[in-house]
Amino acid sequence: MRQNLLGRTGLRVSKLSLGTMTFGGKGGMWDAIGGLDERASGELVARALDAGVTCFDTADAYAGGESETILGKTLAGRRDAVVIATKAAFPMGPGPNQRGLSRRHLIEACEASLRRLGTDRIDLYLVHTPDRATPLDETMRALDDLVRWGKILHVGVSNHAAWQVVKANGIAAAQHGARFEAAQMLYNPVQRDIEREFVPMLQDQQVGLLVWSPLASGALTGKFTREGKPPADSRRASFEIDQLDVARLNRVLDAGRPIAAAHGCSLAQVMLAWLLAQEVVTSVIIGAKRIDQLEDNLKAAELTLSPAEVGAISAAGALPEEYPGNYIRKFAGI
């Protein structure tokens, strides 16, 4: 599997990464997300490794840390062959300082993740969500210290606005510290909001992009009704992070079906291949509850769409024109 450089770093990650949000957890939303035990999780990790996946994504908040623990155990003895990405910010306990991006919490959270993962360093440590209560300079200084101490190697950001990333990296430059080298963001053929401001920022700042929810939590597999209703056993039936434009979803699926038929593959593979064809994408994070789901997704690494096929899906899921983007496109060259 192709290995891509992550942003400006010398770190290489596989073009498909394995997400571990399905690992661990009991009851409530975790049953809907996955709730996989160590054995089932280990089977997915082993198959991903066999297919050439070298990047594994988790977070301390996934199943209250259980995802990290399971991932660490399944990678035992193979740590040096992989890249581990994890995240911090969401609550990890009832206390007021057990959440957010303060210096105190980031250092404590990083130490806890290292213990659960059973490793001495984290390759990519991402801030999971913005924290309005903590100044960005405090967050960036704490992250830089963790890099200087050797506990993390590279710093990333997730679910932030473009201006926040640019501001944070400006602070990092002023402090001569570590900056955000990667961003983990929601992106797929039907949910393309990051194309307005975030993608141009990534290209300008040379920040790598790791994509989460590449199949819109199953909506792009073609298993939903035309009204956007998911199957009863799907994640979206009981746990929904984001909202979908159903009309746009149907246009994208209608464009994808003849392409899938022509290639003799699944709709999911076509949608993942569209993402892999986007120049800005460094790695696409795939997740699965079952081996057959993972097997299907992994085949996307072998599928190459023609420019016309990529264009057809792009046109079907195109965002409506919006100011100032439309103005810039028209007048920026004068």
What does this structure look like?
The chain is α/β, with parallel strands linked by helices and 334 residues long. The chain has a single domain (3-331), classed as NADP-dependent oxidoreductase domain (TIM Barrel, Alpha-Beta Barrel). Helices cover 39% and strands 14% of the residues. The chain is built from twelve helices and ten strands. The strands form two sheets. It has an eight-stranded parallel barrel with strand order 3-4-5-6-7-8-9-10, surrounded by five helices. The chain has a two-stranded antiparallel sheet with strand order 1-2. β5 (83-88), α4 and β6 (122-127) form a beta-alpha-beta unit. It is globular. The mean pLDDT is 94.
Q: Mind summarizing the main beta sheet?
A: 8 strands, parallel, barrel
**Radius of gyration over C-alpha positions, nearest whole angstrom:** 20 Å
Would you identify the CATH architecture? Answer: Alpha-Beta Barrel
β-strand percent reads 5-15%
The strands making up the biggest β-sheet line up spatially as 3-4-5-6-7-8-9-10
Named CATH topology: TIM Barrel
Give the name of the CATH superfamily.
Answer: NADP-dependent oxidoreductase domain
Please report the total strand number as a whole number: 10
- H/E element string? EEEHHEHEHEHEHEHEHHEHHH
CATH top level is Alpha Beta
In whole angstroms, the N-to-C terminal distance is 43 Å
Count of runs of 4 or more consecutive helical residues: 12
* Low-pLDDT segments: none
Number of domains: 1
Quaternary status? single chain
Overall body shape: globular
Helix content: 25-40%
Mean pLDDT: 94
Structural classification: alpha/beta
